[in-house]
Amino acid sequence: MNRYKTVSKIGEGTFSEVLKTLSLKDGNYYACKKMKQLFKSTEQVNNLREVQALRRLSPHPNILILHEVVFDRKSGCLALICELMDMNIYELIKGRRQPLPDHKIRNYMYQLCKSLEHIHKNGIFHRDVKPENILIKQDRLKLADFGSCRSVYSKQPYTEYISTRWYRAPECLLTDGYYTHKMDIWSAGCVMFEVSSLHPLFPGSNELDQISKIHDVLGAPDSAVLRKFKQSRAMNFDFPPKKGIGLTKLLPNIVSFECLSLLNAMVEYDPEQRISATEALQHPYFAESRALEKQTLHHKLMQTEKANTTSSMNYLLRIAGQDRRQHVLKSLPEPTIRHHRPTFPVELPKLNVSGVGKTASYPTLKFQSVFPTASNNGKLSNIPHFKYFDTKYEKTQHEKVLLKPYYLPSIERKEGGV
């Protein structure tokens, strides 16, 4: 802790206190969660659920960032250095007379459901979702305090007295620890109601009063729902039939129908029928949030692509400037593109496939007979000798060849003589 200077105290809980600290290394402010429990070894620190959960779940835009784990072996003190946020949801709505605008509530609840979806997909459920553990900084919301978290794959039953009573689901109240990650959805629904109405939904003074307040609003469950619960040894499940007043009468008129629909789905008595975080994110109430998220993501991708292109060009220019061999860029003429056109027609005439083709008429050629024909007196006429010459020159040359004498040369023998 010598690298951090304490500035002020933010808050204190049962197991820890939170301090605002200044880092002497980078000059930034951080939230220091100092544990009241003393630890004996580094292995014990690494096995801490909160440390394991924050390491597994980071990074995520809606999960508190764990920057450093500071452990003093001599004293056994442990401190978790996390990012510093402005306030929690409880501090945001405390003392307000007018509810938050609907778009602000929608934005916060969308981010809360995103955080729950992320931790549930990673095999963790929080078990203590409440306004004090939901931190905000401007329009950014982050889920914090994973000291009570549990793995969804661990064997039941779990700890009975978990979660703050006002935000505890019915299955946590009526069973000996037989509950699932759906308890986080119930707690988130209670937070949603509190942000919308500025007062808690089920402010029970004890366990029995908590169940009674739930039944006042939602009504008593039927026997089919109660049979799904593994009955607690300390309580009787003989609830008299009762119809609740419903959530509509408890919420202000400014709440939309979609908001009321999602809230009813989140505080469903039967955990098997209760909506999941992934299903909640697809609810019509978050249609505007989904569109805005898609638009923001597209803008970030465009900015990243532009930055990468610019940095690549700067890098190439910088490398080119470092080269000692400076070359003048010459403008070269564009290469001449030679088109090798065929000498024959490319396009063939179309075939007539409509039926039988038309027959073309050609002139009839008349040939002179080469056989002797009988005259009127019965005698054969003399047949002249014909030879075809293409040109007059060829005819003359032929006549010269016929009239020219030929002389054979004398043949000499090797032994002499002719």
Please write out the topology.
Blueprint: E1 4-12, E2 16-23, E3 29-35, H1 42-46, H2 49-57, E4 66-71, E5 78-83, E6 87-88, H3 89-93, H4 102-121, E7 124-125, E8 134-137, E9 140-143, E10 150-151, H5 170-174, H6 182-197, H7 207-218, H8 223-228, H9 257-266, H10 277-281, H11 287-322, H12 392-403
Helix pairs in contact: 4-6, 6-9
Please, could you describe this protein's structure?
Keywords: ATP-binding, Kinase, Nucleotide-binding, Serine/threonine-protein kinase, Transferase. This is MAPK MAK MRK overlapping kinase isoform X1. It comes from Pelobates cultripes (Western spadefoot toad). GO terms for molecular function: ATP binding; protein serine/threonine kinase activity. Belongs to the protein kinase superfamily. The chain has twelve helices and ten strands. It is α+β, with helices and mostly antiparallel strands and 418 residues long. A five-stranded antiparallel β-sheet has the order 1-2-3-5-4, covered by helices on one side. Strand 4 and strand 5 form a beta hairpin. Helix 4 packs antiparallel against helix 6 and helix 6 runs antiparallel to helix 9. The longest helix is centred in the last third of the chain and has 36 residues. The N and C termini lie far apart (133 Å). The mean pLDDT is 82.
How confident overall, as mean pLDDT?
A: 82
Strand content: 5-15%
Give unreliable regions as ranges: none
The gyration radius over C-alpha positions equals 49 Å
Instruction: Categorize the overall geometry.
Output: extended
* Number of helices, counting only DSSP H or I runs of 4 residues or more: 12
SSE string, helices as H and strands as E: EEEHHEEEHHEEEEHHHHHHHH
Structural class of the helices, strands and pairings?
alpha+beta
Largest sheet: 5 strands, antiparallel
Question: Which range best describes the helical content: under 10%, 10-25%, 25-40%, 40-55%, 55-70% or over 70%?
Answer: 25-40%
Spatial strand arrangement across the major sheet: 1-2-3-5-4
Keywords: ATP-binding, Kinase, Nucleotide-binding, Serine/threonine-protein kinase, Transferase
InterPro entries: Kinase-like_dom_sf, MAPK, Prot_kinase_dom, Protein_kinase_ATP_BS, Ser/Thr_kinase_AS
Binding site for ATP: 33
GO molecular function: ATP binding; protein serine/threonine kinase activity
